[in-house]
Specification:
Number of strands of chain A: 13
Structural class of chain A: alpha+beta
CATH topology of the largest domain in chain B: Rossmann fold
Number of helices of chain A: 9
CATH class of the largest domain in chain A: Alpha Beta
Number of domains of chain B: 3
Order of helices and strands of chain B: HEHEHHEHEHEHEHEHHEHEHEEEEHHH
Number of strands of chain B: 13
Oligomer: heterodimer
Distance between the termini of chain B: 48 Å
Largest sheet of chain B: 5 strands, parallel
Radius of gyration of chain B: 21 Å
Helix content of chain B: 25-40%
Shape of chain A: globular
Shape of chain B: globular
Distance between the termini of chain A: 39 Å
Strand order of the largest sheet of chain A: 8-10-7-11-9-12-13
Strand content of chain A: 15-25%
Strand order of the largest sheet of chain B: 2-1-7-8-9
CATH architecture of the largest domain in chain B: 3-Layer(aba) Sandwich
Structural class of chain B: alpha/beta
Order of helices and strands of chain A: HHEEEHEHEEEHHEHEHEHEEE
Number of helices of chain B: 15
CATH class of the largest domain in chain B: Alpha Beta
Number of domains of chain A: 2
């Protein structure tokens, strides 16, 4: 069989060093895989640098590296995750995402079939989000120097006038809202980890939240804080906000949404669902009087059906996040010490 | 969640709290030691203390396996991984435990030692099977609950002829430690611990039964209630202890009847007995040398004993000087009595073992309960 054909077979081929070498093999890979699946007018310009117009106003930009293991998991894969993760980071500024870029680090020997599956999934996620991937980069590292594929994405977005979202805006009296059940992503990943595989119907919540955010800021432009509770879960995100704004928080465990299967898996593994990562949920702080209105808007959106008010911001210089336990006592919800689960996103 | 939520029911908790408040004699103060870190964790995680009257105080015991491991044994494990070229398999809790000069397994791993985190002894056996040309050592720690799986792993390795597998055995025994906590302090000791009753171990007792505590309860005239790890178990056990104390009884009662019997799991006991025997004495962090308090691998299984297989050097091991873990593990001090607590010692940079494990008293105080007693100001640190 012709060697070049073999390299480009998405059925049986695998990545080799020539795919990053700058020669014809690399050009073929870019054309037959990345351009073919991710096609859009800006990418199709075929330049190293994408050229586009930007609207007037304030832009936001965010970048995020993705190293999740395993690459494919219930409810998603590294490709969709790389799109959703960056779109969400942009959206948490209240912004409308406009463009994305993608950088791939491929390990020698990685099956081209898997790579195609990942790129197709990215293409699907980008199309669904209506945000084009406008430029990219590919590098290949020797076998043993990577773990299949790492993907870095960058997103650019524009913030509507009158929207000023930042952690420093947290003030005593504000309500704390969450858009849905916590811990799904971390548990879905965990269920497929080597040495730990267990049967569960839980799927990752990986999703792009910008349309939910758009509906929210339209209803309440004065939203104070938006964050997506990814690594470290709800606990880490709330502690970050509390520390930044020098406020305390009081949560009510009984109303924090956690699916029964997620709660059961966490129970079994000794994890706290409040420390487990999410990839399609957001936390919102807003004035107490806006909370019900915002909640109604969130619940009308498919990604916010199970939204809930879970607590309030209180005065506390030391920045403690406390929780009324379902049992009737009180405890702190602290940062996670060390790492609960490596490489979840 | 079925079979879990029932044991965390808020209404039942309220009723038990009412019963405890009604039966606790306002003229006396009840000091109850929960031996296990699992109980300490439950008390803090669910806020059980908030449901107790003011005259019921929990004294946190030494039943946290990570906490009581002496620095020397951890240093030995680091040495095995760094200087004997082995793959060291360990439960995750041990990774961040600081050894001499804050050297931990996680640091050794970062510097190139081959240390693998495992969830069970079966994982360690698999690593041994997959790496026939490497020595694989399982860092075995824990009370009677984790001992049977270690024994099974050794028997399995023997059956499979896995000659590259061995165990660094640090298994310790609960009844000896309870006796030590009650019996050893000198009555003139200013740090003498006041304990009126014990919440007895739950999972440990599932293996050894409730009988081994009977002699101690009788000798030291202290009631013991074997208590489950759910918060309602803890509260019901507190009520049972208060009744015993009020009535002047000192019996071993079993609240955790859904799991624990008087005789325990005899099959597991037999497996352990086949592979391991008692050490004359073993060092516990906080308690010092405690006679008959630990297990070693029997001579006939010496091939699977890492202590026999590798020449581990004699070394001087040191804990952080002002760390109060030893006194905290005896129940003589509270975490907030320690100068390091919450200042230089937090779960992110633990100086002592009690801040590492989620079952450690310092970690529980810090992570769940520090709003009750604010940490000392930084300037208070010498």
């Amino acid at each position: 069989m012709n060697r070049i054909d073999d390299r480009l077979s998405f059925r049986t081929g695998s990545v080799d060093m020539t795919h990053g070498g700058g020669g014809r093999a690399m050009a073929d890979l870019i054309r037959d895989l990345f351009h073919r699946h991710l096609a859009n007018p800006i990418l199709d310009q075929g330049h190293d640098a994408a050229l586009f117009d930007v609207p007037a106003g304030r832009l936001v930009m965010s970048t995020d590296g993705h190293v999740v293991s395993p690459l494919f998991f219930p409810g998603g894969d590294i490709g969709a995750l790389a799109v959703h993760g960056t779109l969400n980071d942009v959206a948490m500024a209240g912004a409308k995402p406009l463009y994305m870029t993608a950088g791939f680090i491929l390990e020698e020997g990685f099956p081209l079939a898997d790579l195609e599956r990942i790129v197709l999934s990215m293409a699907h996620a980008a199309r669904e989000a209506d945000v084009p991937i406008v430029t990219g980069d590919t590098k290949v590292v020797e076998k043993g120097k990577g773990d299949g594929v790492f993907i870095t994405t960058t997103g650019l977005g524009v913030v509507p006038d009158g929207v000023h979202i930042a952690a420093q805006n947290a003030r005593p009296g504000q309500a704390i809202l969450v858009s849905g059940s916590l811990g799904d992503h971390g548990v879905a990943i965990l269920s497929k980890r080597e040495n730990l595989e267990f049967e569960t119907g839980i799927r990752s919540d990986s999703a792009a939240l910008h349309t939910l955010v758009a509906a929210m800021v339209e209803e309440v432009p004065g939203i104070a804080v938006l964050r997506d509770p990814t690594r470290g879960g709800l606990a880490a995100t709330l502690n970050e906000i509390a520390r930044t704004a020098r406020v305390g928080m009081v949560l009510d465990e009984a109303v924090i949404p956690v699916k029964p299967d997620v709660a059961a898996a966490c129970e079994l593994l000794g994890l706290d669902p409040l420390h487990v990562a999410n990839e399609g949920k957001l936390i919102c702080l807003c004035a107490a009087e806006d909370a019900e209105r915002l909640l109604a808007v969130m619940r009308r959106h498919p990604l916010g059906e199970h939204a809930a008010v879970i607590g309030e911001v209180v005065e506390d210089e030391t920045g403690l996040v406390r929780m009324k336990t379902g049992f009737g006592g009180q405890r702190i919800v602290d940062w996670l010490a060390g790492e609960q689960l490596p490489r979840i996103c | 969640m079925k079979y879990v939520d029932e044991f965390r029911d808020r209404n039942l908790a309220g009723k038990l709290a009412g019963a405890i408040a009604a039966e606790a004699d306002p003229a006396r103060h009840y000091y109850l030691m929960e031996f296990c870190g699992g109980h300490t964790h439950a008390i803090f995680r669910y806020g059980v203390q908030d449901l107790m009257p003011d005259n019921v105080t929990f004294v946190h015991g030494p039943g946290c396996p990570v906490c009581v491991l002496p620095v020397r044994r951890l240093d030995d494990a680091v040495e095995l991984a760094e200087h004997h070229g082995v793959i060291l398999c360990t439960y995750g809790d041990m990774m961040r435990l600081p050894g001499t000069r804050q050297r931990s397994l996680i640091r050794a791993k970062a510097d190139g030692a081959d240390i693998r985190m495992v969830y069970s002894t079966a994982d360690a056996l698999k690593i041994a099977r997959d790496n026939p040309d490497r020595e694989v050592v399982f860092f075995a720690i824990g009370f009677e609950t984790t001992t049977p799986p270690t024994a099974v792993a050794i028997l399995q390795a023997e059956a499979e002829g896995l000659s590259n597998f061995s165990v660094f055995c640090n298994h310790v025994l609960t009844p000896a430690a309870i006796g030590h906590v009650l019996g050893s302090p000198d009555p003139r000791d200013p740090e003498k611990v006041r304990i009126d009753g014990f919440l007895g171990p739950s999972h440990v007792s599932a293996v050894i039964g409730s009988r081994p505590y009977e002699a101690g309860a009788d000798l030291y005239r202290k009631p013991v209630v074997i208590a489950g790890f759910e918060p309602l178990d803890v509260m019901q056990s507190v009520l049972m202890l208060i009744r015993q104390i009020n009535e002047g009884r000192y019996e071993v009662e079993n609240q955790y009847t859904r799991v624990v019997t008087r005789e325990g799991n005899q099959k597991a006991q037999a497996l352990v007995d086949k592979v391991m025997e008692r050490r004359d004495a073993f060092e516990w962090r906080g308690l010092g040398m405690v006679p008959d308090s630990a297990l070693k691998i029997r001579e006939c299984y010496a091939a699977f004993d890492a202590e026999q297989r590798f020449e581990i050097s004699k070394k001087t091991s040191r804990e952080v000087k002002s760390c109060e873990c030893p006194a905290i593990l005896r129940g003589a001090k509270k975490p907030t009595d320690c100068k390091l607590f919450g200042t230089v010692c937090t779960p992110d940079s633990p100086m002592g073992s009690c801040m590492v494990s989620s079952e450690g008293a310092c970690a529980a105080y810090w992570s769940y309960g520090r709003f009750r007693e604010p940490a000392r100001k930084k300037e208070a640190v010498a």
